[in-house]
Structures are given as structure tokens and as C-alpha cells.
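pinging the channel bc i need a second pair of eyes. not urgent but kinda urgent?? the chain im working w is below, pasted from the shared doc
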Amino acid sequence: MLLNGLGGNGNRRRASPLEMQTKPMTFKRNLALSSLLGLAGGLCAYILAWGLFTTHPEVGMEPASGRTIALWVAPHIFFGSMIYFGISVRQR
């Protein structure tokens, strides 16, 4: 008897989650994800710094200094996430 209907062969064993092959993230995906994380981190750093410097003038910094902080934070998050994703792919 041929069992090739919509249900397939009921005797066929399914692979367990441990046996399934995982595909490593490609470089393009790492680059895109790291870019998004870097931009999001820079934007968050700018908003937090601007809010801090606006509400606390006793710190003695202008709110526009948040841009400088964001320009330092964004590349650090970008390169840090690229390193993290590169290491996590090699450990598989």
C-alpha cells in the first residue's frame, strides 16, 4: 500500500530538535543586524544623554553633547555585536 497522501507516511520518524541542523547567520545578516543595533544604541544614548543634560543643568554640559556621546556609542555597539555574532557562529 502506498502512503503518499496529504498525511504522508505515518511510520516515518521525525527528527528531534537536537538532531536538526541549524544554519549559521550569514555575513550580510550579521552586518544588517549589527547596523540596526548600532543605530538603535546610538539613538537611545542620544535620547538619554539629552534628557539627562536638559533636566540636570548642574552637570554643566549642553544638551547638544548627546550627539557626541551617540557618535561614540553607535560604532562601539556595531563592532561589539559583529564580534559577538562572529564568535557565536564559530562555536556551533
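so The first helix runs from residue 27 to 55. and The chain has a mean pLDDT of 83. — does that match what u expected or am i reading it wrong
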